[in-house]
Write a structure and sequence with these properties.
210 residues, mainly alpha, disordered C terminus, Integrase_catalytic, DNA recombination, Tyrosine_recombinase_XerCD
Length: 210
């Protein structure tokens, strides 16, 4: 958990996500900004620097894929093209009327909203709803952990996250106590002891395993 900007960003539960979006974030811009982070597993810089033309068609329709340009990715490794799921499409559709001409999330000057401003907005939102340990990276960690828990292969998740290798990706994924308990419980099938507490021997033990 992240405390005073130290430690790992908290992985959010569904209830915490609902609290933040419904009671912590108070306008469409902020909900859309962090919705992009959640539903595309984008880094906060990648979300802040999105271009409006990469999100909407000239007629104002949400494009089927969200483009994160290479220049705005960490390490400037490669452009990512991510499918826009329905939850994100709805957020972006509602946001269209207030999107910037150049940047999707304009700042006070001619540029885009800054990462620091986004972080302050989120800290205020989390304070209002009483959730600690959250940073702008929480949405990315939450998204990637959710995909891993759903059984999505790591190589596929890597395509979405943009990590250079699987080792980097695995550092983002959180393992819950329930998962560890479930993994340990699966070892019960190896037990050499019968239901009445009598230890099996030789062929009997092999027969029980198979």
């Amino acid at each position: 958990m992240k405390i005073n900007r130290h430690g790992r960003a908290k992985v959010l539960t569904q209830q915490e996500i609902q609290l933040i979006f419904s009671h912590g974030l108070h306008n469409d811009r902020d909900r859309t900004l962090f919705g992009v982070c959640l539903f595309s597993a984008a880094r906060i810089r990648e979300a802040c620097t999105l271009l409006t033309e990469d999100i909407y068609t000239p007629k104002g329709l949400v494009r089927p894929r969200l483009i994160i340009r290479k220049a705005n990715t960490k390490g400037k490794l490669a452009t990512r093209s991510l499918p826009v799921i329905e939850d994100l499409r709805q957020l972006l559709s509602d946001y269209y009327s207030i999107a910037g001409d150049v940047y999707l999330f304009p700042g006070r000057s001619d540029g885009h909203i800054s990462e620091d401003s986004a972080a302050r907005i989120l800290r205020t939102a989390c304070k209002e709803v009483g959730i600690i340990g959250v940073s702008t990276h929480s949405f990315r960690r939450t998204a990637l952990t959710q995909m891993s828990n759903a059984g999505i292969p790591l190589r596929v998740i890597q395509e979405i996250s943009g990590h250079r290798n699987l080792e980097q990706l695995q550092k983002y994924l959180e393992v819950s106590d329930e998962q560890v308990l479930g993994a340990a419980a699966s070892l019960a099938m190896l037990s050499p002891v019968t239901s009445n507490g009598v230890e099996l021997e030789g062929d009997e033990k092999q027969a029980k395993v198979y």
